[in-house]
Every structure is written in structure tokens, then in C-alpha cells.
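Exercise 3.2. Students should predict the tertiary structure of the chain below and write it as C-alpha cells, then compare their answer with the key that follows.

Predict this chain's 3D structure.
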Amino acid sequence: MTQESLILAIESSCDETSVALVENGSRILANIVASQVKSHMRFGGVVPEVASRHHVEQITQVIDMALTSADKQISEVDAIAVTQGPGLVGALLVGLTAAKTLAFLHHKPLIAVNHLAGHIYASQLQQPLQFPLLALIASGGHTELVYMPTDAVYEIIGETQDDAVGEAYDKVGRLLGLPYPAGKYMDELAHQGEDTYVIPRAMLHEENLDFSFSGMKSAVMNLVHNANQRGETIDKANLATSFQNAVVEVLVTKTLRALEQYPVKQFVLAGGVAANSGLRQALGVQLATKFPDVELLIPPLALCGDNAAMIGAAAHHLYLTQQFSTLDINAKPGLSL
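Answer key:
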């Protein structure tokens, strides 16, 4: 098996229809992302049935756009990679069906990829991953600390016990009347206020590496509700600042604790919340101060959200080790690393 690969990757786990062509797991030839944000914005969140319908409408066109953008023919592709899970079952099935059809028609190996692995391997599109490494996956559906002793081997050493951090951001943003998805707007607002509200830091001082964000969300909900009952005005910027500071403190504290327990060469921040400027800055400062020998990897903003290039990056090692899937694989909405 050659050490080179040209992989056509498909990602459709939530509300982005994305197709990419990735060379050797590190070079993006094309990465087309068709977002559905405007369709879901009026509902304040992703509606699974609407997401699935949009994937069906867009998948063929996005595949064609990716091949055209990369100036490649499907015959030149070595394998078809696709997100198997986790995600919305209907959305996943659209991508899987497209990938299996391409693999069958063009006699290409099929590679099933874990969406969370894709988020970690997004950093490989910037520079090579070095093992062992530690990753913090922070997204709308997941908050996990993952130790990787080597390529494609994952050990979850800490995870949220309730809400994911991105989910908490969206719910707090909705309380503050911010547009969906609220993470970006919360981050912007947090830089305009002061830390004046008391937000609990759940599990901060416990020795484990787990997280809890439900209490933070409930505290904001109570603050807003009580202020409304008393006819008081909430300072939205100050509340956003207070909430973000609490979230960042918990994520960074747990990360530093994990780095003390697991000596690594690199630390990878992954997932949609990796786009948060407060978190990026705090991790940069703390790692440079306390773990100067650990290299911090954060994908560019375009690769923090869901995209197919990260799936193609994660698929490269699976291609080299011939970890191929059969055409009868199914979606796994609750798939874990």
C-alpha cells in the first residue's frame, strides 16, 4: 500500500453538507461546505427533518463542485471516506448513501470515519500530528478530553456529565436574544463587557477530568428570569463576559490538569468551540507559561466547524492500514471514539 492517497470525503452529520478532496491526509484540494444556518435560524436550532431534506437536495451538487474545484475525476480517487457518526441519523444516512453509491459504482474502497476523530485531525491539515498528544474536543454536541498515544488510537480521559459546552453557549445566547448559532455572537459580546455576575464553576476543584455545564446554563436562566420578575435590566455584555470567563476557566483548568497527568508532545483544540477567541487566547497563554514544551495546535476558523476536509484527513491513516468498510454499514448517531 502506497503512503500516498487521494480521498474524496463526505460530511453530513448535522447541518452542513460538505465534500472535500484531500491528498495524503494533509493537503486540501477542495473543501466545499453548503451551510444550512439560514434555514434553521428561524427555529433557533437544527431541525433534523429539515437538515435531512437539505442534504438530499445538495449532496450531488456539492460532490460535483468538489471534483470540479480540485480538477479531478472520480477515477483518480483512491477511496471514499464518509462520516458514520455521531450525528443526526437522517443527516448521516444521506452522506452514507452517497458514499456507498460512489464506492460501489466506481469500485473504490469505503472508509467510515468518526466525526470526532475528524475534528482532531483537522489540525493535521496545517501541520503533522505528533504522538502522544492530548485533544480537547469542544463542540455543540461534545466536550471531551482525549489522549492519543498513537495514530487513530483514542482514550477518553474526561467528558461532560450533562450539556456540551457548545450547547450551553447556544442556550445562553438564546436567553440573551442572540441569533442562532449563538457561539460567535456570545464571543463577540463577551469582549465588550465586564465579569460582574456570579456563574458557578461546576466540578472545577474535583480531581477528575470531567466537565459539567448544566449548572452554568441554569444560573444564567435564573439570573435572567429573576431580573425580568423584578423589572430589572440585565447587562447582556456583562453576562456574556461572566459566562464566557466561567466556561474558559473550567476548560483551561481541566486541560492543564490533564497535561500534568499525561505527558504529550502536542495539545489539539478541536471542534466548533475551538473558534472561540477567549478560549484560544487563554489556552495559548497558559500552555506557553506552564507547558512550554507542548505544542498548541488550533485549526484555522474555517476548519473548526463541520467540514469534509477533516474527514479526509482522518481517513488517510485508515486508508494506509486498509481499515475499509463494507457496503452494508449503517449510520451510528451515538458513535463514540
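Discussion points: The chain has a mean pLDDT of 94. Residues 8 and 96 are 13 Å apart (CA to CA).
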